[in-house]
Specification:
By secondary structure, this protein is an alpha/beta fold. The protein has 6 helices and 13 strands.
């Protein structure tokens, strides 16, 4: 993805972590990079080696790689098996790539964690004072008009007659692989199934473990609307 951009005096780094908000941060970084006509980099840091990451993490990484290609990012960087503090890794990349602006999601950090481990933001301000930080408020879960969903888990769709059945075990008959977000307060498999189809991200409705049709669900509060209102 190496290419030359117009504004070499500015350079954007988007730092993403696992969850639905990474896509929103990348889109924000792309908007700023396009306005400035400058290079865009995307970074994620993980303590585990890549081959030990769970299915949910690898799903998000593949999606971020796709977005990096679509938005013509210079590079998508995965710093796996990383034992150093995240702030130190970000600062090192910022110096190496001559980053001038960093986009981060707002971190949920308790007061005790700030005292014992230090604030990520404060550490970055100390280590790389020459870089502008953009802190983007993010939502932690997918939401709709009825409330919020539980944390996503790996799941599969298997074709049965005119519908698809949700499964949590992989088999040779799997048609689609993705993430299932179960509705809060239900004992049944009701919620949203998120997956890639024809190089496009789909959200489809699941009712009692069944997807009647692969029709996109428009969430009342989705990431695109949050991005436009922020």
């Amino acid at each position: 993805m190496e290419s030359i951009k117009g504004r070499l005096d500015e350079c954007i780094l988007v730092c993403v972590y696992y969850g639905p908000n990474g896509e929103r941060l990348i889109k924000r970084g792309c908007k700023i990079a396009n306005m400035l006509g400058c290079p865009l980099y995307i970074l994620t840091v993980d303590q585990k080696p890549f081959d030990e990451m769970d299915a949910e993490k690898t799903f998000y990484i593949e999606r971020w790689k796709q977005l990096a290609r679509e938005y013509d990012a210079i590079d998508f960087m995965i710093m796996d098996n990383e034992k150093r503090p995240v702030a130190k890794v970000i600062a090192e990349i910022a110096r190496e790539k001559h980053i001038t602006q960093i986009i981060l999601g707002q971190t949920a950090q308790s007061r005790w964690e700030q005292i014992t481990k230090g604030s990520l933001i404060n550490t970055l301000l100390h280590d790389i004072p020459f870089v502008d930080l953009h802190i983007i408020s993010v939502a932690r879960y997918i939401r709709d008009e009825n409330g919020q969903f539980q944390r996503g888990c790996r799941a599969y769709l298997n074709k049965e007659d005119q519908h698809y059945r949700l499964s949590f075990k992989h088999s040779k008959s799997v048609d689609y692989e993705g993430i299932f977000f179960k509705e809060q307060g239900t004992d049944f498999d009701n919620g949203i199934f998120k997956f890639m189809k024809d190089r496009e991200m789909f959200h489809v409705q699941v009712t009692d473990g069944i997807v009647k049709e692969l029709k996109k669900v428009e969430l009342s509060v989705n990431y695109e609307e949050e991005e436009n209102n922020s």
